[in-house]
Amino acid sequence: MRDAAAEFDLGEAIPSPHVTALYGIDNVQDDEEMLRIFRRDVHRVILDVADERRKRDGKMQGGKVWPDLGATGIYVGVEYDGVNGGTMDMAWAEVTLATSPDHEALIDALYNLLYGNPKDDKKDVHSRPTPWMPHLSICYDNPENFGPNLTRSAIEHFIAKSCPTLDKAVDRNGRDVEFSRSVTGISLWKTAGLMSDWKCLDKIEFQ
User: Fold this and answer.
1) How far does Cα 137 stand from its chain's mean position?
2) Which of 57, 60, 67, 116 has the greatest number of CB atoms lying within 10 Å of its CB?
3) d(Cα 10, Cα 27) in Å, to the nearest integer?
């Protein structure tokens, strides 16, 4: 992340590599309440879904809590607030990862925990985009600052030079996924303000 910020002359680097499960949680009163929900309920909900998957697969114990995430390619994009459903002005580069029914079940469980189940027919229940395509962001900033310079070829060159481990994710061309990562835990971040203001409030490690 720091290398990408330096390569594209960005003001700030993404504080920590991450694949977002949910963002924009705006219906929790304060940090203390969010921490209580995270520590009390999030791990329980994730383990419940994992247990259901184990039962389905005939595995009463063992197995991964969250399925591995495999890369499908590199994506460079830009969005503007209010244009085609955009919610912010941003240009970014990412490693796009594949979703799966098991991944979607976990996202559903977390979304239902925090926003309510759409099947409950409550007016304040949020809907979520489906499928939710997981992704590992490499860098982002305001599109006016670096968007014109952030091209696919520039990102491919950067990856080949600075992060050869990701090189297999650059171009799938219909081949099997060759790059994947295990999900080792889930963390809670407060992302108010600039990226330099972002703060990790807590983290749960999967056993």
Assistant:
1) 8
2) 67
3) 32
92 pLDDT more than 90 = no
Cα distances (angstroms) measured from residue 52 to each of 47, 156, 197, 206: 9, 40, 38, 16
For residues 148 and 131, what is the distance between their CA atoms, to the nearest angstrom? 29
Beta bridge partner(s), residue 96: 73, 135
pTM: 0.82
90: left (phi over 0), alpha (psi -120 to 50) or beta: beta
Residue with tokens 């005939």: 58
Residue pair 90/142 in contact by the 8 Å Cβ criterion? yes
Rounded to whole angstroms, the Cα distance separating 108 from 201 reads 22
Give the integer Cα–Cα distance in Å for 53 and 177.
23
